[in-house]
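Intended use. Records like the one below are meant for learning the mapping from a protein sequence to its folded structure. Do not use them to infer anything beyond what is encoded.
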Amino acid sequence: MISVRRFLSSLSIKKRLFLILTLLSLVPLILVSYTAQYFMLRSTTDYLNHLTEQLIMDQAEKTNVYLQELEQNLNIIINDYRFQKFVNTPLKDDPNHSTYINYVQPRLAHVLNTKKEIATLLYLDSTGKVYHLSRAITDGIYYDYTFREDQVYEKVFQTRVPELFPPHPQSYALNNGKRVVSYVKPIVSFNPPSVNAWIVVELNESALTQITQPITSEATNLIAFVERGTKQTIMQPDMPDILIDSVKNHFDLTNPGFKQSTLIENGQSFLVTKQSLAINNWDLVGLTPLDKFRKGVGATRITTLVIGTASFILILICSYFLVHAILRPLFALKKGMVLLGSGIFSKVIYPIDNEVGFLITTYNGMLDNLQKLEKEVWHATVREKEKELLQLQAQTNPHFLFNALEAIEAIALSKDREALGELIQCVSRMLRRNIDHESCFAPLKEEIDYIRDFLNVQHYKINRTFRMNLNIEESILTVQTLKFTLQPLVENAIKHGILRSPQNGAFAIRIDARRRGNWIRMKVWNNGAHISPETMKQLTELLHSGGEEKSPYFHQHTGLFNLYRRLALTYDNRFRMKMISSQSSDTEMTLLLPLRIDN
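Structure written out for the chain above:
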């Protein structure tokens, strides 16, 4: 159960909706299919039961009618007084016997000729008279045959009501005869009333089963006549013995309530139907093969299954497109949200007037508010950056002014008027540039000119001689760069390099600026004293923190910190700063700046 919930929770809304629609369509489809098959099978079974019951009733009625007609024909002969005289005439009274037999013979022959199913007519009585009438002239009998000693015919002399004997051989015939079914009609004498003679109508073995077959029928029957007491049978020639034996073993045919049931024999199914006959102790049993009907039901079931499967596939296809049509606006909304997550404001254009349309309209309104808020935040951020840049710039100006005044003081004390004039001009140009707040950017050429003036001021201030080497690529002199980018690096080189190096040392500063693709690489190198490990540690932490954390060290050493903050505010994370300084190497500071920036 947990795994099913986990599986369902992992599905997308499209797959869930598709699954729900599939189940909602599959359940009624199965119910309709099952119900249709059930009622179809039920109606077919009811129809077949009714049909076979009606058929077996018709066949039983045919048998009864046939035997009643035979009974009537025999009664006409028996009730004639001359036949009664023939019955009562002893065998030794030859004249009278011949007279009456001449009367009886044509009437019995008429019965024989009108019923083609009759093979032989046999007259027997208790005085020993035997009269035989056969359809074939060549069929002779043993006239000295003792019928009372025959296993079958001895029962004739015990019969008091019409009886039907199961198939047996004509053992009295000269050629051993054939197998026949005997209908025994007792002859009642008038004076005195008694039964001393019998007419045995011997039918061909298959005669009864043939006369009962319908001309046409939707149900094909196998029929058998079954005697209730002995369970002896009269069967169709093509009916297997094992089949009727199975019927007799599985069902109580003597039960008056038994009408229909189903029998399975050797993998075949039969509908067993029973109908009682008018003749004493005999039933007509019909067996209707169900395989043909079940094949039809199976074919119908397959057809239903094919139609159901095709309908289900069609429902799946329609459900897929329906789900896609329903969720299309949601997919558009999801796409817009994914783009929003990437920083792209894209409105969802999908006109629809429902709950999803309300969500889309609300989302588009939220985008408008976000864009407005983003602009407000952007403007506020820009104002904050500009404010901080101005503050950092304001910190740079007094620092420059203090340095310039110290240099002027030193020259004034030396009473070198020419040097003093040159120094004042340098300070004037630098001051003019410092108070120019129209833009934070200037061409690289102006930055280089500023460095020249700055180095002149430092020369007079510290009273040290040093060599400056400028290696600037001419193509980038007009490129806009942030003001006062190189000045803190040069000042740091003088402060940590020259002032801490011996007086007699040959100090040199080299400034290198090159273009590298879409970047400008600027290097400030000096051969003075290396930066102390403590200072390097502070500078390294500054670079790693992105300028967000200010160590107490930079409360007094603001030059590099201000530079780093101004670069971070201007270029965000699109710049690099690197410093190399050790006892075994010179000091080098490298800046990598974007060639172009947004306004």
